[in-house]
Design goal:
This protein is an all-alpha fold. It contains 24 helices and no strands.
């Protein structure tokens, strides 16, 4: 059975030299030769860093001759280990953007390497090798010339560049690198920069791609990263945008009752947000986040917010049953039919498609048929509603039959458009 470190090395597609060094390390580990095991692992680790340096672009704080000289030193078989280590920890004109505590850990492991190589008195046990493997797996992604965060952002750049990566290719592997590439203090900057890197990369990559990445973070990242993202989105007022793209994530935000009320009472009324308020409202209802005593008020508010000319977002098929179960269409019936009687054509025009949605999704009654029929023949009818109702009857013949049947049963005179 392979050790976890063996699977990890295979998954990273490192060079043959690196794989051989870690293979030797594992052989020594299995045979309890822990000094040799740690030494091979340490040399394997520095070999990875050496290859990172060789494959990296010249840092902006180095001239071409300076960088060429550095690379020449790490290619010298006599000097390379010392030079790679010095390049890794240097703070004056740094090459690697590492935190001070990480440099201290590197010094600790360099000392343990010397314990192994020179057989010093310090004991080296299995846990030393295991701890070094854990250290390496946790931090190797941060050790890039441009910095771990920047390196990962560049990978996202490449992923969402269709000249390098096919559209719709899975990006989960990049999300999994966040934990080992980005420091906890850099999470906010990373999320903010990630959004700007993805949005507008190509005309078909937009905000939805960013929120797909954010949603994946909430699915598979470590809990502390998920919590940091949730706090970031709330702080940046981007939580509603994520919920609009992924309504099933709404419960992840742990909103208070006060927050929930603010969402449906205030945020969903904003015309500038360019999102479907009924999608978010339905998610709130589906997760039972709105107190039962406030649902009718919420239904009224959403109907009031709807403005045909500015915001034509309608209930989506996935949300119809939720809205019906919570009386949303009954609220439309009460306000539009019983209270307003479809008498003010300008108001009817402003709510037209949502009234049609009610007609399509609820059983008709005598009052509904009578109100519509009277509206169609008065001196100022809503021609918009008449036109849309004719279209509905054409698409849903059963609804036309239902309408006509109720009219015939109750002696309601039908306008010629509905016969």
């Amino acid at each position: 059975m392979k050790l976890e470190i063996e699977n990890w090395i295979i998954s990273k597609h490192y060079s043959t030299n690196v794989k051989r060094l870690f293979s030797e390390s594992v052989i020594c580990y299995r045979n309890e030769a822990y000094r040799a095991s740690l030494l091979f692992s340490y040399i394997g680790f520095l070999t990875i860093i050496k290859q990172v340096l060789i494959n990296s672009k010249r840092p902006s704080n180095f001239t071409e001759p300076e960088w060429t000289s550095q690379i020449k030193k790490i290619n010298d078989d006599e000097l390379w280990e010392k030079e790679v280590y010095e390049m890794l920890i240097r703070t004056k004109k740094p090459i690697f953007q590492l935190r001070d505590d990480l440099r201290l850990q590197l010094k600790y492991w360099k000392d343990r390497r010397n314990d192994c190589a020179h057989f010093k008195s310090n004991e080296i046990e299995s846990h030393h090798t295991e701890s070094f493997w854990s250290f390496m797996k946790s931090n190797i992604q941060k050790m890039t010339v441009e910095g771990g965060k920047e390196s990962l952002l560049n990978k996202f750049d490449d992923h969402f560049d269709d000249t390098k990566t096919p559209p719709n290719k899975d990006f989960s592997y990049l999300v999994k690198e966040i934990a080992s590439s980005v420091s906890t203090t850099d999470y906010d900057d990373f999320f903010r920069e990630l959004k700007s890197r993805i949005n507008g990369k190509r005309w078909w990559y937009g905000a939805s791609d960013t929120y797909n990445v954010f949603a994946k973070i909430l699915d598979i990242s470590e809990p502390e990263i998920q919590e940091a993202l949730i706090e970031f989105l709330k702080k940046e007022n981007r939580d509603i945008h994520l919920i609009n793209a992924h309504p099933n994530k709404i419960s992840r935000f742990n909103y208070s009752n006060k927050d929930i009320r603010s969402i449906w009472k205030t945020k969903l009324s904003s015309k500038s947000m360019n999102m479907n308020p009924l999608r978010i409202y339905s998610a709130l209802l589906r997760e039972s986040l709105i107190p039962k005593g406030e649902i009718e008020e919420g239904n009224e508010a959403l109907f009031e917010y709807y403005e045909q000319t500015n915001n034509r977002f309608l209930p989506e098929s996935i949300d119809i049953d939720t809205l019906k179960a919570n009386g949303f269409f009954q609220t439309i019936r009460r306000i539009a039919i019983h209270e307003n009687g479809l008498k003010k054509f300008m108001w009817v025009n402003s709510k037209c498609d949502l009234i049609i949605s009610f007609i399509e999704n609820e059983q008709l009654t005598k009052e509904v048929v009578e109100s519509i029929s009277k509206m169609a023949v008065n001196s100022n009818p809503s021609q918009w509603l008449v036109r849309e109702l004719i279209s509905t009857f054409s698409k849903i013949p059963e609804k036309k039959k239902e309408f006509q049947s109720i009219a015939n049963t109750n002696g309601i005179s039908l306008p010629h458009e509905f016969k």
